[in-house]
Amino acid sequence: MKKLKNESALLKKALEIGETYANNRGFNSFSGTDSSKQKIECIYRLLVNDKLIAPLPEDKEDLLSMKHRLAMWIAKKLPDNHPLLK
């Protein structure tokens, strides 16, 4: 798995967009006590369920892989000239 440039910033953006997407789908907002791990897993599973991202193989489904998959997802959705992609 090749690390993306600005991967942590891309993940932050993916969580922001993913949370908005989840709210639009009828998911109650995340609470202030929800950990980032819970948010990552929830958003990942929602996007897989809606077939917006390909699922990871079951034996490779860990937090780091989910973070990377979400960062890749948002990197493909951002315009080519976005500052996070430079």
Automatic annotation (TrEMBL):
Alphabetized InterPro entries for the sequence: DUF5062, DUF5062_sf
Superkingdom of origin organism: Bacteria
Protein name as catalogued: DUF5062 family protein
